[in-house]
Amino acid sequence: MEFQFKNGRIRFNRDLSELDLFVRKFVDALDSCGIRYVVISGYVPILFGRSRETEDVDVFIESVTAGTFEQLWNRLASDFECINSANASDAFKHYLNEHLALRFAYRGAFIPNMEVKFPKRELDQYTLENRLEVILNGKPLYISNLELQIAFKLYLGSEKDLEDALHLWPLVKGHLDYEKLKRHAGQLNVLERLKDLE
Amino acid sequence: MNDLPRIDLTELDADKKENIRQRREFIRKYVEWLKKTPNSVWSVQQNKLLSRPKPTV
After folding, report:
1. Does A32 touch chain B (CB under 8 A)?
2. Could you report the predicted ipTM of this complex, rounded to two decimals?
């Protein structure tokens, strides 16, 4: 695997899957509406070559106004539909504002879907504010910083999550701020699992 | 009921642990392979897995 980790940014080129193109199309819509986002969880190890599928791609978007969200809704409408809400007003009021996830899939499809939320906790806001820029085939994509991502996978603790952490760690450990990873692991009470990972 | 199989939970738990150990071993080996394999090779293989047709509604 060839990637450049420089100035807090990862750059690499590779063959793109349908899942990558699906994510790309969705984040292009976010970018075109000027909405900051961070992709978290299962897609991150997949981005780095993990050999598993996922049904949903989790993303936090910044807490925008109803007007900006409606602009996004309309921008998405040509390719995506929302699985769990019929219109922008309902989606904003009864889902995003209530910190519930909206799910967007390609029209007529159910999976994969983008699971979109506003940040709820301070940790969510931290994730958004400390996102990591990945330049994939020349285009930027923002993901959770890897120190937090690995610690959080250890915290979630299902076999799939632990495998995700086990996948990411050897690939990126030479580029991580290990003290920061340890602090996150300490906060999440998973220092023992971090030791096992090493 | 006597038509049910005998289940030894201790044995099953041991099998489960062994499966987890083998899965983790596979991931370690896979990542070692990833690290030394060009992106143009591994990403094509990953694509074959990820780009299979998905069910529609």
Report:
1. no
2. 0.72
